Amino acid sequence: MSAYWLERAWGDGAVLDDVLVEVAGGRFTRVTPGVAAGEVPRATRLDGLTLPGLANAHSHAFHRALRGRTQRERGTFWTWREQMYDVAGRLTPDSYRELAAATFREMVAAGYTSVGEFHYLHHQADGRPHDEPNAMRDALRDAAETAGIRLVLLDAAYLSSGFGAPPQGVQVRYSDGSAAAWAARAGSGPAAIHSVRAVPRDELHHFRGRHPLHVHLSEQVAENDACLAAYGLTPTGLLHAEGLLGPGTTVVHATHLTDEDVELLGSTRTNACLTPTTERDLADGIGPARRLADAGCRLSVGSDSHAVVDPFEELRGLEMHERLATQARGHFTATELLDVATAHDVLGLGDVGRIEVGARADLVTLDTASPRTAGTGADEHTAVFAATGADVTHVVVDGRVVHRHGDEPSVGGALAETIGRIWS
């Protein structure tokens, strides 16, 4: 059993002082506020503000190799995609493992304790299966174990370059040929549909009943236009018609929606994952986060392309993008945004994201005296509207310490070395 004394902690929707937590078997067995420092000498002292573990609901680990390399010319999402395909064509199971481990370590250092890895890089560069058909997936699992992050691997089907057209170029690495072949390789468990353009309508029935199920949705206006041309439905309307919306499904981005789309997603209690730092980096647009929440969608965030890995910046992005779109302030409270930050449930993890007895023992401690956080109140507003990932000093996942202040140089060194080899 281990114990921690938390100077301040976020629990039950409020900041609590002098909190003693005890952990056994990876779960909280005691959570008691008002315990004087030093009363339990064996407890590790964590000064600052401690949050429950944060959820990264949408990640493509290999995109991390693109950071800083895609900003040199004007372009669009589609020109960025060609650069992403270049990276995808270079990776082997070994290099993928190294890159993902370094990327996952960066996530942990920023406060993420769970990650939903949207995985579609399945096969060899020429489309042939690896000798072990899931070698790339196994590489991700090994990487997560190395980094100490909790992994939910969302095995993604990607069958078409667009509404029935065959895969092109590096896309052959992604495709199993059919949804039935995908299911045979992927097996049961968490799943993803890359997008309605990448899985033809007559294949979508294979995904009914798969939970959690994630899908890219309406990230680009061009996707909506092509879907309307192919099926006479928006992407949201198509998923609804095929029985794929509901509380077990998370749509990612949901940027360009009609009023009817928002109503459909909300009325079916479908989850929505927004990735503000990626959406701004790719010039996707601003999604209707507040409208989706008001309609009934459970919101979450993800670092997606890893242009930025910082959960606090993602949370601020939800609010700040709404301000830009509406010219008004105050769309989300700090409490609401911390609830978004701890939405592990959209990954099928119902016992994470709370500092309470019985929950998995994840702790993320913030320095409340840094140049960014000093004088901001050391409360929920500090976490959401002042802190950055650089203020994370200590991270515990399932009761195990996975990051300490001072680990940052080794995290950066691993990224530099690994990404350098990929591009060499």
Write a concise synopsis of the structure shown.
With 424 residues, the chain is an alpha/beta fold. It is built from 13 helices and 15 strands.
How do the strands and helices of this protein lay out in sequence?
Elements: E1 2-11, E2 14-24, E3 27-32, E4 44-52, E5 54-59, H1 77-90, H2 93-110, E6 112-119, H3 135-147, E7 150-157, H4 179-186, E8 191-193, E9 213-217, H5 221-231, H6 235-241, E10 249-253, H7 259-267, E11 271-274, H8 276-281, H9 289-295, E12 299-301, H10 311-326, H11 334-341, E13 363-366, H12 380-385, E14 392-397, E15 400-404, H13 408-423
Parallel strand pairs: 1-4, 5-6, 6-7, 7-8, 8-9, 9-10, 10-11, 11-12
Antiparallel strand pairs: 1-2, 2-3, 4-13, 13-14, 14-15
Helix pairs in contact: 2-3, 2-13, 7-9, 10-11
Describe the protein.
Helix content is 33%, strand content 22%. It has 424 residues and is an alpha/beta fold. The strands form two sheets. Strands 5-6-7-8-9-10-11-12 form an eight-stranded parallel beta sheet. Strand 2 and strand 3 form a beta hairpin. Helix 2 packs antiparallel against helix 13 and helix 10 (311-326) packs across helix 11 (334-341). It is globular.
